[in-house]
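Form 7-S
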Amino acid sequence: MGEGVLKRYADFLDINSSTPVITMGEGGTPLVRPRSLEKKIGCGELYFKLEGCNPTGSFKDRGMVLAVAKALEMGSTAIMCASTGNTSASAAAYGAYCGLTTVVLIPKGEVAKGKMAQAMSYSPKIMAIEGNFDDALKMARLLAGKHSVTLVNSVNPYRLEGQKTAAFEIVDELGDAPDYLFIPVGNAGNISAYWKGFSEYHSLTLTSGTPKMMGFQAEGAAPIVTGIPVDNPSTVASAIRIGNPASWEKALIARDQSGGIIGMVSDEEILSSYKLLSQEEGIFGEPASAASVAGLVRMAHNGMVFADKRVVCIITGSGLKDPDLAVDQSTQDIYHMPLDASAIEKTLNDILKSSDKVSRWI
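Output:
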């Protein structure tokens, strides 16, 4: 197990001798340089930060470990969150690990089955409410204020403090900040956390500059882009299906201070990049993760030049979070064969003859 973000970045986090330094091995996720898409998109250097390699399969674990550690420090025996899936899984896992009662509010029928199954396996108390994520978060905030339970959504400041460690890792591995950071935007906490991390490192002269923060929402759930909350957000990317982000203002600060943008991409662009990642690079991210790559592809197609730039895209969660969508989107042929060696061999020969794959290592 890795040392975890609380130990590795203790000097940059609000922890003290009373804070339990817990870990489930979060952080230390791979920064992968693609073999194909870097050239196709036209980047000088392109990297994918694979946050799906965290313990519960998403970036949420970085912030959750600190939020739960501070809850324990304060004597809390219960934690609570509203979630579209990833936060509930992370909260429930760390709650189980630390022996805490975990209460989860989810929008009924709006959570991907993979995420739901994962959360349920940790045995939290789940309430499926009528309404969307924004409604669930309002209820969670209201109830946490009335009862002895710690709210661990990203409105909890320790969540963003923990999530900023991903920016530290990128700099530590690359030796400096990238020129651009492309990231999906849902509740807008993550783009805010990354900007905080890059800004803190830069203030300590640990980087020569800071990246332009390039956030992307889904077209059907793009309140920051339009400037108007969306009552009924709609997108195939359930993790960013949020109509009134809790960290809206923080995201605008990250955008403006970095000289970046917050744009939007269609579901078609998200699914195209979702397939591109897996089929070209062997990276299986959840649909929301692909919004970062879709944003980069859109900007490149619109004439933005990245030829001499270092670009990082955040792949926020594992594709295993939404297996049903993966099956629905696949055009993969399945050959149904008899238990007959000659028939199987003939099909194998046909596959090998028709293959257009060329090794990138030759």
